[in-house]
Amino acid sequence: MDPSHWAALFPSCGGLRQSPINIVSSKVHVNSALPPFDFIGHTNTLNITVENKGHSVRLTGGALPGHYRASQFHFHWGGNGNPGSEHTIDGERFPMELHIVHIKEPYGTLAEAEHDLAGIALLGFLFEVMKHPIIAALGRVQNNGEHNSTESISRELHNYYRYVGSITTPGCEQAVTWTLFHKTLAISSRQQCRFWNGQPMTNIFRPTQPLDGRVVYRSSAVKPLSSAFHLWFSQISFGITKITKYD
């Protein structure tokens, strides 16, 4: 369905706190009260199954300690050589975007958290095309029945944008505290091509939505925060999720 028609079936998609947005860097407000993140548990090793759900690639992991626990990962990309990030910075769309969805404790499911205006914390990472990619298997999950593994993701994260918004797929629930990191992740041009090489899943992003009076904040952290995400994607199979967490 064309995103412009979502609101007819999902009224929240026509709300005033919708995502994604275009962030105008000259208009953001620096908020010194926004500290660096403490990614408790994100350095744990997870054995994760990758699922093709028809609209995005979802990686469903186990609960992680903290006030918000990780629930799922998914990606957004373009097609035919065009960029496909959901958020844009000063009108620039990036090749891809990674979302890591966290649910507020003590909610057990995303559906429960959606009823709380602060129920979901969503981390966004933009990608740039580089010679030395971080993720080795992203472009191999358009179809089911494949088996691949990835390298670790290790990035320094300290500056980020913050605003209140929504889920970017129907029903567009307005229960999200968004964090979009300045630091980009690397993907090779070859990997990018695998996302839009004629497979059914292309142009997987929602157009930017009006800000409607919302304020976008930027953190003022000055020291980089090292955070490693060690993800091994194994046993890729459609519709089956097997999760093993090694402490």
Summary keywords:
twelve-stranded mixed beta sheet, Carbonic Anhydrase II, globular, single chain, 3 helices, 247 residues, three-stranded mixed beta sheet, mainly beta
Structure characterization notes:
This protein is mainly beta and 247 residues long. The chain has a single domain, classed as Carbonic Anhydrase II (Roll). 6% of the residues lie in helices and 34% in strands. It contains 3 helices and 17 strands. The chain has helices at 6-9, 110-113, 189-195; strands at residues 22-23, 29-31, 45-52, 57-60, 68-77, 88-89, 92-93, 96-104, 120-129, 153-157, 160-165, 176-181, 185-187, 217-219, 225-229, 231-233, 244-246. Strands 2, 3, 4, 5, 8, 9, 11, 12, 13, 14, 16 and 17 form a 12-stranded mixed beta sheet that branches. It has a 3-stranded mixed beta sheet with strand order 1-6-7, with no helix packed on it. The longest helix has 7 residues, at 189-195. The N and C termini lie far apart (42 Å). The relative contact order is 0.29.
